[in-house]
Amino acid sequence: MAVPKRKVSRARRDKRRSNVWKLDTPAFSICPQCGELKAPHKVCGHCGYYKGREVIKMD
What we know:
Layout: H1 10-17, E1 29-30, E2 37-38, E3 49-50, E4 53-54
Antiparallel strand pairs: 1-2, 3-4
């Protein structure tokens, strides 16, 4: 039967049990103007629109 050779410290045990190290998936929303994926609350990098208004002139 497998038995641990050394006691696992409280710090190591608690680090393993914490959810801090797990990465979250990045949030994306769909631009209503062009339909591309963009970061929420940011200007669309594809068309330059934010909340229905053109903020950046795109070529």
